């Protein structure tokens, strides 16, 4: 299971890095669509880095609890699958070339990825602060 999680994270990093390397644009919030798309990508990459940092801290916190780490890894793997399926459903396209959403699609897609990633990070940070279980607050 650990190898699967590592493979998933590696593929996500490679895909994100490849997309970022292919872009010759810099973020400009007042710029053209390509520059706005880059802003959204930059924001998503920052959110993803924060998620990964939080994940590392969480794994370190529970490193001596094999059950907790196994359950957290299973949940994270399921969340990654959910995130990807949610994005594909949100941007469903019959043409197969991902172009039916127009030039704003990368900006919108990365915006949704950012939102989902920030929500997941908040959930993991809650585990860091309060431990596992249900808080009665």
UniProtKB/TrEMBL annotation:
Keywords: Signal. Transmembrane segments: none annotated. InterPro entries: LprI-like_N. Residues 1-22 form the signal peptide. Residues 29-124 form the Lysozyme inhibitor LprI-like N-terminal domain. It comes from the Bacteria. The keyword Signal applies. PANTHER family: PERIPLASMIC PROTEIN, PERIPLASMIC PROTEIN-RELATED. This is Uncharacterized conserved protein YecT, DUF1311 family. It comes from Thiothrix eikelboomii.
């Amino acid at each position: 299971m650990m190898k699967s999680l590592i493979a998933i994270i590696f593929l996500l990093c490679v895909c994100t890095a490849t997309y970022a390397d292919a872009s010759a644009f810099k973020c400009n919030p007042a710029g053209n669509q390509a520059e706005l798309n880059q802003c959204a990508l930059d924001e998503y990459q920052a959110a993803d880095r924060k998620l990964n940092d939080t994940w590392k801290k969480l794994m370190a916190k529970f490193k001596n609890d094999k059950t907790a780490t196994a359950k957290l890894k299973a949940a994270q793997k399921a969340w990654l699958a959910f995130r990807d399926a949610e994005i594909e459903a949100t941007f469903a396209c019959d043409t197969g070339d991902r172009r039916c959403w127009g030039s704003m699609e990368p900006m919108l897609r990365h915006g949704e990825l950012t939102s989902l990633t920030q929500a997941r990070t908040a959930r993991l940070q809650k585990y860091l602060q309060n431990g596992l279980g249900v808080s009665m607050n």
